[in-house]
Amino acid sequence: MNSKVPSHAQVVIVGGGSIGCNIAYHLAELGVSDVVVLERDKLTAGTTWHAAGEIVPGVLGAEWECELYLHGRNLIAGLEEESGQATGWRQVGYIQPADTPERVEEMRRGAAFMNLHGIEVHEISPAEAAERFPIGDFSNTIAAFWYPNEGRTNPVDTTMALARGARNRGAKVIENVAVQEILTRDGRAMGVRTEQGEIHAEHVVVAAGMWSRQIGAGAGINLPLQAAEHYYLITDDIAGIDRNLPLLEDPHNWSYYREEVGGLLIGLFEPDAAPWMIDTIPDNFAFGEIEPDWERMAPHLEAAFARVPTIAEAGIRKFFCGPESFTPDLAPLVGEAPNLRNCWVAAGLNSLGILYGPGIGKTLAHWIVDGRCPVDHTAFNVNRFADGTHNTPAFRRARTPELLAKSFGPHFPNDSFKTARGLKRSVLHDRLKAAGACFSESHGWELADWFAPEPGQARVESFSWGRQNWFDWHAAEHRAAREDVIVMDMSSMAKFLLQGRDACAMLNRVSCNQVDVEPGRVVYTAWANEAGGFEADLTVTRLADDRYIVVVGENSHGHTETWMRRHIAADEFVTITDITPGTTQINVHGPKARELMSRVSAADLSHDGFPFMSARTIDVGFFEVLALRVTYVGELGWELHVPALHAVQVYDLLMETGRDLGVRNAGMQTLSSLRLEKAYRDFGVDVDNTDNPSEAGLGFAVRLDKPSGFIGRDALAAIKEAGTPKRRMLQFLLSDPEPLMHGNEIIRLDGRPVGYIQVGAYGHTLGGATGIGFAELDQALTAEMVNSGAWSIEIAGRSYAAAASLKPMLDPKMERVKR
C-alpha cells in the first residue's frame, strides 16, 4: 500500500472498507485513475472485517435494488479470476421459509418481481427445503423459496481484491492516514486535510461507514446514521454439515444461518436492537468487538435454535457482537451532498455493505463521471433528508431499536415505522385524531391514512396483503370525494416561495413547461435532467412578476430545494424560502366543493370567475388564504394555503358549514385510490430520474418550442422525434373485483411479461383494483396494441385479466374537474 499522501488527486475517497474500495475500483474502471483511498487504520478495519459475507437478495421490492444486487453478485463471482486475489466466493444457494399465509403471499409477490429482473427464485415445498438444508426444522413451513445462484464470500478477501483491481488501474490506496477535515470554499469541496498534509481534489467521497456522520458534520453535511449492535454466534463442529450447505434466512425468528468451518454461524436481526455510541464513534475503534449482552440476546438465540434444533446441543465457539450502521428509513445515503458541491456520500448500507457495495460503487462512479445517476435515486439520494430532524441523538436512540427487525421481518403495503414518531405534525393533527384518523408516517410527517367512525377504532387490527379492517371506511371516504365533498390535510406538501428579479428566468430554465405566464396562473410541469429524465413533477404558481410558489410532494422536499438552488446562475438574484412549516394546506374536493366554498367565501368561485389552474387570494370566514384551483384527485376543488395561525379556525369552519353536504375527512389511502383512478403520476413513486415525460404520458407538460429552452430540451426533442415509444406508462383495471394491487405485480401481454405495476390501489368508482405501470416491447407500443391486446396482471402466482389504457379510465375529458 502507498504510504505517502499526494498533494493532489482527481478524487479522494475517505474510507477503506467495502464501499470505498468499490468506488475506487469502479472509478478506475471508467478511466479515472487519479484516485486516492484514505483509510485511517487498515483496510476493512471498520465493519467490513466482521461482515457475514452473504450475497443474498432477500425480498427486493425496487428495480434499483435488483440492478445493484445483480451487478454485485456477478462482479464478486468473477472477481477472483480477474484480480488474481482469492475472494472466498462460493455459490451455495439460498433458502427462505414462509411459515404464515401472509409471508407466503409476500414471497410469491417478491419472487415474481425478482424473476422479472433476472434474479432466479423458485417456490419449493418444505420437504424440498429440508433436503437442501437437512439440519433445519420446516415442520411449520407452508412453502419455501429457493435462490440457486446466490452464495457467500469472504468480505476481507473480496475488499482486498477490489483494492488490487483499483491499484492495477492506477488508484492509490493509503492506510494509516486519518482525514481530519474536508476542505471547502464557496460551497464546494476542495480536498481534505490529513495528519500528513492536505490533498487538493476535484471530488471528495465520504465512504467512512459509521464514522461518516461525524466526518460529514464537520463540513455541515447532514448524514442521519447510527451504529447498532449486531450479533452472531458460531458453534463448534456439527456432524453432517457440509461446507456447501445453502444459506438460510428465517424472518420468522429474526435469524440467518450458514456453515462456518464445520459448525454453524447464526446471525440475529432482533426486534429490540441496541444503538451503540449515540454521540461519537471512537476514532481508534479498529477491528473492534463489543461486549455481548447475553441476557438481552438469550430469548432471540432460543428462537433461532427452534429453526435448527441441533444448535442447542452444539458447543459455542464464539458469540460475537460488532457495530453496523443504519439509516432512519433503511435506505442508503448516496449522492452529492445537498449543501456542498463535489462532496459525495456513500454510506448507510444498513448491514448490506458487501451485498450492495459493488452496485453502489458503480452507481456513484458513473454519477461523478457522467454528472447524473444511472439508476433510480429517489429512494436513496442523500438529499432526501432536508433538515436535521432525523439526526438528533434522541431520534437515533429511539428509532434504531426498530431498524434491524424492520429490515428483516415482514413487509406490508401500509405499514410504517412505529418509533420516533411525531417529528412533523400539521397544526390540524389533534383535530384529525379526534375525528378518528389513523396515522402513517412519511419523511417524518404524521399523515392521516384513513378515518374510523370513532377515534377508538383508529387502529390496524392486522396488517395484510388483503382487505384490512379499515377498507370499508376508506371506501366511504372515496365515495364522498366522487359524490359529495371531502377535506384533506395536505400540509406535508413541500412549499417554496421564490422571489427576486430572476425568479422567472431560473424557474423557466428548469421547467419543461412554460412558467413565464400571467400572475395568477398555476402551471403543472416536469423538471428534467440533461438526459431528459425526471427530476421532479410539480406545480409552479406565479403570484407576481417576481414571485412564485413551488409545491411538491413531501418525498421530494430536499431534492427539489437542492435542484433549485443549484440552478441559480452566478449573476442571478433569486431567494428561496421554505414556507412549509408556516403553511397549512387544506384541500377541498368533490362535486359539492363549490357549494361548500361559496358558503364560507364571498369570492367569485364560478368556473369563469375562478378557472381551473388559476390562483387567487380569497376570504374564508375571517381570514385571507391563497386558493389554487388544482386537483390531484380528479374532482372539482381547491387547494387552500392557510397561514398556520388560522388553520384550525378555517378547518372547523369548513367541517361545520359542510355538515349537511356530507363533508368528510379523507386520508392518504383515499388520495391514492382517487389519483390512480385518474392515472395521475407521482415522482419518486411512479416515475423517477430514469424515466422521461414522453414515456410517462406527460408530454403535455413539456413545451419544446419555448423560446428560452430548458434543461433536457434537446434530449426530449430527440425522444419525441424517434416516434412512438417502445416503453409507455399505462393504466390497468382488473376485471375481477376481488384481488388487490399494491405495486410490483407483473404486467403480461398475451401471456408474456412486459413490465410491472408501479403502484396500485382499489378503484372504488371503477369497480376494481387499478394501477399504473410501464409496459415495454421490442417494437413501438401503439394505441391500437394497448386497446386490443390481451392484458393480464400476475398477483402472487395467479393471473387476472385486465383492461389497459393510455388515457385515464375515469373522466378522460376532465369534465368532473372543470365543471
TrEMBL record:
This is 4-methylaminobutanoate oxidase (Formaldehyde-forming). One of its GO terms (molecular function) is oxidoreductase activity. Belongs to the GcvT family. InterPro entries: FAD-dep_OxRdtase, FAD/NAD-bd_sf, FAO_M, GcvT/YgfZ/DmdA, GcvT/YgfZ_C, GcvT_C, GCVT_N, TrmE/GcvT-like. PROSITE patterns: PROKAR_LIPOPROTEIN (PS51257). Residues 370-426 form the FAD dependent oxidoreductase central domain. Residues 428-706 form the GCVT N-terminal domain. The lineage of its organism: Bacteria, Pseudomonadati, Pseudomonadota, Alphaproteobacteria, Rhodobacterales. Residues 727-811 form the Aminomethyltransferase C-terminal domain. It comes from Citreimonas salinaria. The keyword Oxidoreductase applies. Keywords: Oxidoreductase. Residues 11-367 form the FAD dependent oxidoreductase domain.
